[in-house]
Amino acid sequence: MVCQSLASMGMLLFLPVAIWHPSMYGFNVTDKTFPYDNRPVAPLINYTFEQWWFHGHLDYPPHPGDIFELPAGQTATAEIACNKGATTWFNSSEGGDIRQGNNPCPNSPPAAYHTTGFDDLKGCALAIAYESDVSKIQPEDFTVFSVNQTCVWYRFTNFPVPARMPPCPEGGCHCAWFWIHSPDSGSEQNYMTGFRCNVTGSTSTVPLAKPQIPRRCGADPTFGKPEADPGNCTYGAKQPFYWFQAERNNMFEGTYAPPFYLDLYNFKDGAQDDIFADSYAALPPPSPNSTIVPVLQQPQATASGPSVSSISSLSSVLPAPTSQPTNQAPFGTPPGRCSACRRRSYNNLQRRAFSSGIIARSKAKGKPWNLWHPF
What we know:
With 375 residues, this protein is mainly β. The protein has helices spanning 2-8, 49-52, 308-312; strands at 18-20, 68-71, 75-81, 124-129, 143-148, 156-160, 173-180, 190-200, 270-271, 346-354, 357-364.
């Protein structure tokens, strides 16, 4: 394989991933469809809204009967891979069957899909818009409802669905998969794959709350912030990250401080159970100086499916996860132009050289992975 030969030559080949499923927009798009490589796995960076929104694939919709099902209170399992040939739908890929068990990128090292190892994973998310007409959907309409923080390590990736998800309108909903990778393995890239979806087994009609912009509020030791600021978090329904595009961004973090679907932005692993209109009696405005944390009114356990670790046993060829070196130098610069991020005074300035220049980090003062799976 090409990947093997390049690896043996000591060359790094990045193989971005996507979530694959016939319900997705652009399921059969190839590198020849557009004047540029706009396959579902191609990264999105500095694009116009028309280019990055739904990956520019709105003119390549799925067949009407292809729907990704979301069982309320259960787990939806998707396939994430560097190539459609590594998924269940290999028969419609250009290169045929290259599947390798639970490996998302066969015959490739983890660096090929933008990570130094298991401890360097940054999570991915599924979001939903309760609208059947895709032309009416705006970025602010999407609400993140499930997060997998080990994305994109496994081909088969679990997304627990909140138990209280209401039914979709006639004609179904639209969903999207979002991923931003670690800053040490590639440039400032975003990934978005839109698809048609439908919630099944609903037992609640309580609508989702209006999603708000996530805030960087968790412990951030890379930038001298050893403790979280719970009062500065966005609680409840949250929008996905729209970052580093030419227009329509909602995040303005610096080049080496991307937003991630992790606790850093109050995205807990699994179902996002506090996204409903009655989840909180009130939501106080978040602030770096606030100590007020809202109380969840409707705590709701979500039934869990097979664990990711159990799914990993599907492949005996997948390399064992390795930890990122403990002496790894931190990446990036503190978030820039981010109104949602906490500003602090900094001292003990340290510098580190990157190929793109010299960047700085400081020590704070004061207090403490397109979609593939049939359902």
